[in-house]
Amino acid sequence: MQFKKLSASYILKVDELFEGKGWEVEPEKKMKTSLYNKYIDRLTRIPDSTRPLFLELSDRFDRIGITEIYKLFSEAYDKVDKAYLTNAKKIYIIPLVELEIRPKQEYRGENVLKKLWSYLKFIFKKPKAVRPKNKSGERVLSIVEIEYRDLEHSDKFIFPENYARFKSIFNSKKDLLILVDDFIGSGDTANNILSQYFKTKKFNSKNTILISLISQKIGVEAIRKKHKVNVFQSILRERCISDYYPIALANENIKKVEMMEESIKCVTDLSLGYKKSEALVSIMNKSPNNTLPIFWHETRSLAAPFPRRKAYNK
Fold it and tell me: Which residue ranges does the record assign to the PRTase-CE domain (predicted)?
């Protein structure tokens, strides 16, 4: 067992961490199903000099379970500026997911007739505009749709199933669009989706807002900078190292995290999380790639405490 590779003092610190965080301790379970065993295993694989920092970062880790989703959404919703809600005639709530839009057609016909035929097929083919399923925003919204009736102005709520239909009836001067996600990291995904919505003049920063359970401050700022859209969340986090420690100590701790990453062979282009987001979060048993990879990196033979639930080739 990996327990033998750790001193008694480290085992005690892990036990205290799990007790304080309310995390389940199930050492009798197999590695892949026991958070406790996976955590111990990860701790044994990183350099001893970095273990105190790993424990410290773990103490600030946000592990959000499915039972907390509606509570966090409700807290974020309560922070929305009241003017948005009172002035809206209808409030449309949609998950923050990419619209499935048909890619631009290329006309490669060898002659004019073939080019014309390709063009006719292109303009008469019905475009796809449906919301992808099984995304995190979709899962959050499925919970909200069950519980939402206690929220202020919930009588105005509409949860459209068809984007094309929704777009045709949305009143840009009277209605409000709320895009929902579980987590805002770098802001890249949100900005890309907002760009899709804002291609039509119906949607703009005055009638569109974002609600997230938890957000990174850098992502919120990136969204406001690019689209001037307001983001409301229950929990707002800064980068866990660069914004948390004094500069000299932050630089030292970044080097330690990089040592940890190297020891378990993390993907280098996601060092410190996507775009150096330095997040510490796992939602509904899945970590976003913005989270430090020392917590989620895994392979077929290497279990992670807070995995991303991906298929791995190695």
Answer: 89-301
Residues 148, 152, 157, 159, Cα dihedral to 10°: -30
Instruction: Report which of residues 176 and 118 the model is more confident about.
Output: 176
Least confidently predicted of 43-47, 93-97, 125-129, 220-224: 125-129
The answer to whether the CB of 88 falls within 8 A of the CB of 176 is: yes
Q: How confident is the model over 239-258, as pLDDT tens digits?
A: 999 999 999 999 999 999 99
DSSP 3-state assignment of 214?
A: strand
pLDDT at 293 over 50: yes
273 contacts 293 by C-beta, under 8 angstroms:
yes
Q: Which residues pair with 157 in a beta bridge?
A: 91
CA–CA dist 94, 115 (Å, integer):
38
Question: Tokens standing for 287?
Answer: 């970590």
Write the DSSP symbol of residue 127. Answer: P
Would you list the domain boundaries of the chain?
Answer: 2-64+239-296, 67-98+132-230, 99-131
200 within 8 A of 194, measured Cβ to Cβ:
no
pLDDT confidence of residue 231: 99
- Under CATH, which number does the domain 67-98+132-230 receive? 3.40.50
* DSSP string covering 56-121: HHHHT-EEE-GGGHHHHHHHHHHTS-HHHHHH-S-EEEEE------PPPP----SSHHHHHHHHHH
- C-alpha distances in Å from residue 255, one per residue of 49, 134, 157, 269: 11, 36, 48, 16
Tell me which H or E stretch contains 209: strand 208-216
